[in-house]
Write a structure and sequence with these properties.
This protein is of the alpha+beta class. It has 18 helices and 23 strands. Helix 14 links the parallel strand 20 and strand 21.
Length: 487
C-alpha cells in the first residue's frame, strides 16, 4: 500500500474566445500524478457551461472527439481525482457544476474538510439534496447559499470561508470570473501564471503552468482569494495571516512532481535535502545508493552526495502501469511490484545497497521491493526512508486513515526491518522533516499527532470501506464535529 493524495486542480482564463479545453487538457496531463481515478473539464463560453467528466486517466477520458465536444470558450477549469473521501463513482467526478437563481457555478477542489459531515447534515436538514459523496459538493452548497445574500461570487466565497474548515485549494468558475482560493493554513499548494498573450492559469503545481506555456507569477497565499476577470486580477486577503502556514510536508516528500516549486521551494532540492539529512542521521556501510522511482530518486541522490557512496539507477519503472492496473487475483497482486519495477542486476548484484524510498505504510510494498533486490543478487539491503514513521491519521486529504494499518504504530524499527527483509532501517527524523519547506511552515501531524486545526472527534473515513478505530490519540485542539461516513 502506498500513500495517495486527493487531486489536482487547474484553471485557464483567456481575454478572448479560444480553445481553452486543450489548455486544460495539457494542464491536467501535467497533474496526472496527483490523481488517476477520474478527471473532468468544464468550459465556459459566454456563460454557457459544457463539460466532460468520467472515470479514468486524462488520456483515456479526453479523446479527440470528446475534446471537440467542449468547443471554444474564454474560461475552463479541470480536475484530476484520487478520492480519500467518497466512493470511486462517476457522480464524484469533478469539477462539480451548480445552477441556481444567481447563475451557474463550477468548482474543483483539492483537500478534505474537517467539518464536512456536520455541514452536510445541516444542509440536508434544510432541504439540500446531494448527488455526490465528496466534500466538494458541500463547499459548492455553502458558496451558493452565501451568494444569495452577497453581491458577487467572490464576496460569497469570502463569507463561505468563515464556515468551511480544513484543507481546500479551490478553482471556481462563474459566468464572468475565474477564482482561485486557498485555505488559511495553506495545506495544499496553489499558484498562478500568465502566458505571453495575456491568458492566466491556476494550477496545483507550477509544472502545469509550464505545460501550457505560462510563466509562473506567484503562489496563492494561504487564506487568499484571487479573481480573474475582464477587470483584471483582484486579490482578497481578509483570511490571510489568521492561521499558521502549514503546507502538507508530503507535497515535498512525495506528492508533487520534482520539477515543481511550491511556496518558493524547489521540490527536487527539498528531496535532496531529505536524503542528505538521512545520510547524516543513518549512515550505512554500503557500495551503492539506489532510489525507488520516482519520488525516492532525488533523496537517493542527496544521500549519495552527502555520504560519498556512489549513486546508481537500481530499478527500471514500467511507465505504462498506473494505479488503475487491474490485478485479477491475489497471486497476480503479488506480482504487481515486479511488473511495475524491475531491478538492474549489474547495478546491485554482489553489492551492499542503500535503498531509498519516501515512506512505509503497511510494509508490504517495501518487503517486495527488498525481495526484488535480494533476487537480483544484492549482498545487503539497508533501507532508508525520507520521511518519519507514520503514526497518526490525516484529515486534510491524504489517505492515511487508521492507526490500525500503520506498521510503525505496531512495531519498533528493528522489527519493521526484519518484517520487510532489510539488514537495517532508518527513518528521517521529525526535526529533519520540518526543515524541508525552508521558511514555510509544514503540517507533520501524521508523524507527530500535533494537528494544526481542530479535527473530527470521531475520525472515520470510508476510503477503504472498513471501520476505523475511534481511539485516535490526538493533541488539542479537538473539534466537536463528527466526520462520519457519507454514503
Amino acid at each position: 500500500m502506498s500513500i495517495h493524495e486527493e487531486c489536482g486542480v487547474f484553471g485557464y482564463y483567456s481575454p478572448k474566445k479560444t480553445d481553452v479545453a486543450k489548455k486544460a487538457y495539457f494542464g491536467l496531463f501535467a497533474l496526472q500524478h496527483r490523481g488517476q481515478e477520474s478527471c473532468g473539464i468544464v468550459v465556459n463560453d459566454d456563460g454557457v457551461f459544457t463539460s466532460v467528466k468520467d472515470l479514468g486517466l486524462v488520456s483515456e477520458v479526453f479523446t479527440p472527439e470528446k475534446l471537440n465536444t467542449l468547443g471554444e470558450g474564454n474560461m475552463a477549469i479541470g480536475h484530476v481525482r484520487y478520492g480519500t473521501t467518497g466512493a470511486t463513482i462517476r457522480a464524484n467526478c469533478q469539477p462539480i457544476e451548480v445552477r441556481h437563481i444567481k447563475g451557474s457555478l463550477a468548482i474543483a477542489h483539492n483537500g478534505n474538510l474537517t467539518n464536512a459531515a456536520s455541514l452536510r447534515t445541516e444542509l440536508e436538514l434544510k432541504g439540500s439534496i446531494f448527488h455526490t459523496t465528496s466534500d466538494t459538493e458541500t463547499i459548492a452548497y455553502i458558496v451558493t447559499r452565501e451568494r444569495l445574500t452577497h453581491p458577487t461570487i467572490e464576496a460569497a466565497l469570502n463569507s463561505a470561508m468563515n464556515t468551511v474548515k480544513g484543507a481546500y485549494s479551490l478553482v471556481i468558475m462563474s459566468p464572468q470570473k475565474l477564482i482561485a482560493a486557498r485555505d488559511p493554513n495553506g495545506f495544499r499548494p496553489l499558484c498562478y501564471g500568465k502566458t505571453e498573450d495575456g491568458c492566466y492559469c491556476i494550477a496545483s503545481e507550477s509544472c502545469a503552468l509550464n505545460a501550457v506555456g505560462a510563466a509562473f507569477i506567484r503562489d496563492i497565499q494561504p487564506g487568499e482569494i484571487v479573481v480573474f476577470s475582464d477587470s483584471g486580477v483582484q486579490s482578497i486577503t481578509d483570511h490571510c495571516g489568521k492561521s499558521p502556514h502549514t503546507l502538507c510536508v508530503f507535497e515535498y516528500i512525495y506528492f508533487a512532481r520534482s520539477d515543481s516549486e511550491i511556496d518558493g521551494v524547489s521540490v527536487h532540492q527539498s528531496r535532496k535535502l531529505a536524503g542528505g539529512i538521512l545520510a547524516r542521521e543513518h549512515p550505512a556501510d554500503a557500495d551503492v545508493v539506489v532510489g525507488v522511482p520516482d519520488s525516492g530518486l532525488d533523496a537517493a541522490l542527496g544521500y549519495s552526495e552527502e555520504s560519498g557512496i556512489p549513486y546508481s539507477i537500481g530499478f527500471v519503472k514500467n511507465r505504462y502501469i498506473a494505479r488503475t492496473f487491474i490485478s485479477p487475483g491475489q497471486g497476480e497482486r503479488e506480482n504487481k511490484v515486479r511488473i511495475k519495477l524491475n531491478p538492474i542486476k549489474s547495478a546491485v548484484s554482489g553489492k551492499k545497497v542503500v535503498l531509498i524510498d519516501d515512506s512505509i505504510v503497511r510494509g508490504t510494498t517495501s518487503e517486495r521491493i527488498v525481495r526484488l533486490l535480494r533476487d537480483a543478487g544484492a549482498k545487503e539491503v539497508h533501507m532508508r526512508i525520507s520521511s518519519p514513521p507514520f503514526m497518526h491519521p490525516c484529515f486534510y486529504g491524504t489517505d492515511i486513515d487508521s492507526e490500525d494499518t500503520l506498521i510503525a504504530c505496531n512495531h519498533p524499527v528493528e522489527d519493521i526491518a526484519r518484517i520487510i527483509g532489510a539488514d537495517s532501517l532508518g527513518y528521517l527524523s521529525l526535526e529533519g522533516a520540518q526543515t524541508l519547506g525552508g521558511k514555510t511552515g509544514l503540517c507533520t501531524a501524521c508523524f507527530s499527532g500535533n494537528y494544526p486545526t481542530s479535527i473530527p472527534d470521531k475520525p472515520y473515513k470510508n476510503r477503504f470501506e472498513r471501520k476505523i478505530s475511534e481511539n485516535v490519540k490526538t493533541k488539542p485542539p479537538v473539534a466537536a464535529e463528527k466526520l462520519g461516513v457519507i454514503e
